[in-house]
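Annotated sample (chain length 550).
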Amino acid sequence: MDSQPLPDAHAASSRDRLSYLPAEVLADIFSYLAPNPPAPLSRRLLPYSRTAKLARVDIQSVKQLKSFVDTVKGTPALGGYVRSLTLNLRDTTETILALETAFNDTLGEALALLPAVKEVDAVDWMTTSFLLSDNAVAAAAAHPLHTMRLSILLTQLNSLDFVTYRLALLARYPRLRKVEITVLPFDPGSTSAVAFDLFPASDLAPAALDMAPIAQVDKLVVVGALCDQRVVNILRAFHGVRDVELADTFASRHIAPALAALDPSALRGLVLRRYLVPPPVDLPAQETDWARFANVHELSFALPIGSPDALAAALPSFSNLSRVVFGAGSDPSAALVQHLVAHRPPLLREVVLSHVTGMVGEPLSPESVPAVASWLEAMTAAVIASRSPDASDDPGAAARAVPPFPLDGWLLPQWCPDFTPSDAEALLPLARSVGVALGGTFISACLTTYVLDRQVDLWLGHDGESGAGVRDMGDDEREVICDRSFWDALALRYAARLLEGTDGGGGAAAAGDESMEPRSKALPLDVAVFHPTSARRRRYEQREGSLDER
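Output written by the structure step:
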């Protein structure tokens, strides 16, 4: 009989070294493995595995909710593992309404069985309706509920007591610190969903609501039509919020009433952004009183800035302001940014400019020069047409007439008349002189513009003849300038010049590297996605006549 080797106890133990790690380390490891951790190797790891598996529960149907409640009832200890509960019901509205009483009872049971839940995410409005009820408060008020994400229909806000009674129940969740509210313009779960009409707000000095304010919340996020009076009423219900983020789903400039409804007494951070970018709602402009927010520490814009002149006048008095972000869609003028930097608030340390960006792609080559030349001709014609007295009333018509840029990998910057590459270059030494750091994607936009300008000038030449700039080059030199690494090196040198105020060294003379003085004014049209060097612009003007005169 053959003898079998005895099990190596030490080897078995070494395979389960995980079990011998300290408890805090195990908890951290399994938090990264959630929500699908591997099967535990030992009994000691079982609680950590359960914690990871049950920490976040996502319910997607009434049937699944009932099954979950039955499971936790059978093993009550499981409910103690749940920290986050998401209800994203896929049942139709009509199905849930037919089961409304049973659904609310089951949801109440679920909350009562989860004593450690810290976060509830109600993706559908019917779950929100229950959470904003006395029964929900009774079931979960004693829980450590820290975060609630709610979805509300605009039509629900038609009820005069929805904000003053239903929403006011949030004040009875004592540990609640973060609230996110999405106001839905229609019911996505209904089989006959229709969009609701807007009620544009007009009162720039709203009176306090007749209700006990929601005062324990530190962070408020509201996603919806900020121009609508019903959304404005939501904002009026919260007092003493430290951080506010408003996401406009209608891309309207008509948000002054929403800003006027905020309580600025404890406000430290204000973020304004666009959630979607549909056609703007055509509503009259209203002046925003930016001086109300003089105590904020951080401002972030990712939508059109309302009342920019009033903002420029107020910013120097923001005694606590340390950071300002201009994101996509904000389109600040160079004058506004220069004013902010030159007259900086005493604590301002950083300005982020990410409203324009760019990316360098495949270099020009002898094969691609004709296509790029055709693109340049089309863009020049569009610029001239847009400035003609007979130009179309549609400002985007000329831009749509320009074909896509023919080289792969490029993201061409969308400069505008109020913020050109020259403006961006001039901001950097100004910021250095006053100790303000400039960051954001505008640096990549400057690099992209610079590199494209150099390539076009090199290949098309300064006399308008294709290839004039490289006609006298040898094959080796042509190979170098067709190599991406050559242009990457040139971009790094230019970046050093921008960021450090030096020329950065290096040998870029082969690319016709003239001095990097600020450029002339960019073509005032959105399709002017790159900034022509002064030599090329003179060539345009000689051929087509002065663009400025047209």
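Annotation: The first strand starts at residue 56 and ends at 59.
Annotation: The mean pLDDT is 82.
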